Amino acid sequence: MKKTLNYLLLAFLLAPFLAKAQMPQDAIYMNKNQVCVAGMYTYSSWNQYWENTLKRENLNIGTQTTQSFMLMPVIGITKRVNVILSLPYVWTSNSAGNLMGQHGVQDVSAWLKVKALRVGGFSLNAVVGGSIPLGSYVPNFLPMSIGLQCRTFTGRLLANYREPKTGLYLTAHGSYGWRGNTKIDQDAYQANDRVYNTNQVQVPNTYDAAVRLGVLRKGWQTEFWAERTACLSGDNIRRNDMPFPTNNMQATSVGWYAKVQPHNIGVNARVGYVVDGLNVGQSTSYMVGLLYQINVKK
User: Fold this and answer.
1) I want to staple 180 with a disulfide (CB 3.0 to 4.6 A). Which of 78, 83, 151, 271 is the partner?
2) Residue 39 near residue 69 (C-beta atoms within 8 A)
3) Which pTM does this prediction carry?
4) Do 147 and 139 form a contact (C-beta atoms < 8 A)?
């Protein structure tokens, strides 16, 4: 992977155009026939978590760490329609206890982002996407599992206003996420104070909402953000038990994001911290990435 990225770097070093990396949660678009490939490394860890509403630590786990490398190509279909793909490789570990970490390819995701309305500096954007599990990881070995092994579909409405002269912008979005069943390697499980005699587990659907305030100028971007993610149903972690895919996981996070990309090559970075939650770890996360953009000639 490192060798491949080095080859891309050498090939695109002299490309004479402005690069604009973008994500499913922003209002930045690639132009028609432009492709940007991002490679992003993320490190997240926690040593305290919410068991229902009780905030506690677990000396049998110590500090739980999740790391990932994600490859994300972004394709400009038109200047108002983009396709975003992603494929992460994830690995987990603990600093104490005997639980073995997992590692492997997680879920492949695809997003379609459309600028539905633009009036002056204001735009309204529609984003739809979904994911399909690729790896053979164990979904109910939480918190060591690298995913929930279920199909997902998400619809998002995103509003953005950017002041043309200063580049100051405000972005807000809301999303609904549907999640399918996951299959576990056992014949029964307990959830919602009852026993289900099946290996098919219904994973709760989710919603998320976020607001971002930042500055976007030619070649660089910086922003502060706050985000709320929560399940629409589910149960709580039972006292001194492990998490389970049916849990009602909720988190409120704050953080900072920045990007420097004056030409075809750029870097980005992100820091996030969970300030409040339910059935989740109080994690601190860091992300760094490399961005490469090309023009596709026809």
Assistant:
1) 151
2) yes
3) 0.89
4) yes
